[in-house]
Fold:
Amino acid sequence: MADLYQFRTAPEDPLDCVYFLHTTGSDPTANIAFDAKEQRALRAKIKGLAPRGEEGELISGECPLDTAHRVTFVGLGDENTLTHGKLRGALLTVMRQATKNREYQIGLAVSARVHGLSESESRLFVLREASIADYTFDRFKSKKNEFDKIDGLHIFPLAKETEEQLEERLDSVRMLRTSVQLARDLSNRPGNDLTPETFAAAAREMAEGLSGLRVTILGKKELIKEKMGGILAVSQGSFEEPRMIVLEHRPKKPKRSVVLIGKGVTFDSGGISLKPAKDMGDMKSDMAGGATVIGVMRAVAELELPIKVVGLVPTAENMPSGTAIRPGDIITTSSGKTVEVDNTDAEGRLLLADALHYAGRFNPDIIIDFATLTGACVVALGHEAAGIMGNDPELLATLSSIGEKVGERVWPLPNYDEYLSYLSSDWADLKNAGGRWGGAVTAGIFLKQFVPEKASWAHIDIAGVAYLEKVHNGLPKGATGFGVVLATNFLQELLK
Ligand code: BES
Ligand code: MN
Ligand code: ZN
Structure:
């Protein structure tokens, strides 16, 4: 991805193009730090090209400033309906346009604000999304793009923004985007490349590159010792052995204690309850929750947050074979609770049951799990929000308000006790599937049975937002890295 700079009035070489993003009827240069002379020159140019700022508008011309060859005006539409998605989409348009025109150094001037956000919230969003808008996953392309990528993204300061302020914002954005990129890269890797073993190796590699993260990998032997019947059951049909990735950030005098858990199914075929062939390949991203947790742990260590944070990623591959679990099997999880496997495709909750129980030993105040858990959640919410449920309304409210700000939205699912009856089993303590109705809720209710007492807990079902079949809301096709920004902001907010 392009390097991120603060635009200095005299870069060594002129930029290839400066992109102005503006809403309908607004002055593209408004609230951007230009001096009077630049302002005049730009005004004259704007008069000539007459951009209206309507959604989808794209107008280019020669740049009247010495600092760039060309200018392009990108319309954002009505300022009162400017959403995270539209702004992200416009930033994606910028990157595509720049790539198409072979522009290596580009400038970005944006003062428009996401509707409903404060100036600084919106500014951080724009900078963060701009910094990641040229993300691509080309690990397996032998012929990389001929144009080898935008080199530099130069941000024009706002009129009210000091150099220090902008530099500080850029620093936080550079840090976060690396974590988002890591989460996306992991989720985009296919099942033959990212196995539980290589997933654990990637987590170890990340942790060892930073100070302050302890990494422990539990292998099959250790999982057997811990009696983690859920993780072992899911993996038993696969050639690949399961793991539990444990990342610990333990500062000296921690203010709080948080455990983050991410579902790490490196490929979900459904097992004996095999999924249909159509789009089954997308199930390479069924470890997106785990990828998010690894991304967040990276950010936590980098930020040296004074919070004890433990990241747990139970990881396995769900395959059908002669050694696979069968519908009807009864397994014993590490908590001692027995589960009748009604459907081998409801595997995520089996892994998470063991991880939730394991979380108890860290005495967390708060547990948050991220999981591509149910198709039912996608049916309910589409790609616009993740589902959230839990046992502490205040925690859920905090997460949802942060989600609205950072553009990673979560929407509440109910947590009524009545749903537990959907999971009752004639033969074991509970079943792993609750039938057709309320699938996203019953999955969460299942998890709730394994949450350690006293912990505040939130479950975030990211099935609809972690991976996209096509570009949507300015997010790329494939993995989005959903949750990295939300969780990192949440942890920072805990310190306030
Ligand atoms: N990984 C899937 C859920 C999923 C579906 C994620 C679509 C992303 C997109 C999960 O393991 C699963 O298969 N869930 C089942 C549960 C059912 C059998 C109770 C589902 O949602 O159908
Ligand atoms: Mn499944
Ligand atoms: Zn799954």
